[in-house]
């Protein structure tokens, strides 16, 4: 939905924009732009998996869940409500963090490489579209130049006609 500049209230603008954004979010597989088609449709299983994992790791939900899990882990071991399975200074927790870092680092690098590829494809596509637009502009300018030349010829003929009429000369009738 287009948003008009005449609508000054932020609420009116938000009411128009929000449904479009919700619909866009709902249609995750709606990627008709050529760059997105290449990026999504031609991705290998590993690339898609890396993208999904990176999206999960980079979310607030992941950070909150992990923070809560670590807090519960530490509290249970500090209080000693259950037999301590991870003696101080939390060697097992440290090992789990190391394993997580060993896997998430490369996954994030893979996802970053995919984003770099997408950015490169986007730039290439934008350059192609700009070149196409330049070619169209050249064609339009050539057509304008041709029309200008014809207009100048017609003006020259009109001037001659006006001179002939002013001098009292008659011109042969056409048709």
Largest sheet: none
Mean pLDDT, nearest integer? 81
Q: Which structural class do you get from the secondary structure elements?
A: mainly alpha
Radius of gyration: 34 Å
Summarize the structure in words:
The protein has 5 helices and no strands. It is mainly alpha-helical. The longest helix is centred in the last third of the chain and has 77 residues, at about 90-165. The two termini are about 55 Å apart.
Keywords for this entry:
single chain, mainly alpha, 5 helices, rod-shaped, disordered N terminus
Summarize the structure.
The protein is 77% helix and 0% strand. It is mainly α and 175 residues long. The longest helix has 77 residues, at 91-167.
Fold blueprint:
Elements: H1 10-26, H2 34-41, H3 45-57, H4 60-79, H5 91-167
Helix pairs in contact: 2-5, 3-5
């Amino acid at each position: 939905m287009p948003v008009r500049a005449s609508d000054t209230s932020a609420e009116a603008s938000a009411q128009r924009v929000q449904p479009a954004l919700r619909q866009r979010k709902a249609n995750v597989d709606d990627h008709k732009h050529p760059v997105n088609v290449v990026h999504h449709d031609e991705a290998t299983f590993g690339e898609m998996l890396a993208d999904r994992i990176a999206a999960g790791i980079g979310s607030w939900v992941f950070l909150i869940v992990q923070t809560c899990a670590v807090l519960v882990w530490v509290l249970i071991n500090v209080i000693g409500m259950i037999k301590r399975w991870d003696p101080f200074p939390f060697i097992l927790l440290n090992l789990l963090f190391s394993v997580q870092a060993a896997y998430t680092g490369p996954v994030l690098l893979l996802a970053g490489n995919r984003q770099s590829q997408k950015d490169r494809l986007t730039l290439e596509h934008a350059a192609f579209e700009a070149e196409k637009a330049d070619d169209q502009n050249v064609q339009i300018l050539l057509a304008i130049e041709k029309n200008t030349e014809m207009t100048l010829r017609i003006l020259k003929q009109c001037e001659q006609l006006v001179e002939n009429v002013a001098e009292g000369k008659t011109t042969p009738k056409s048709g």
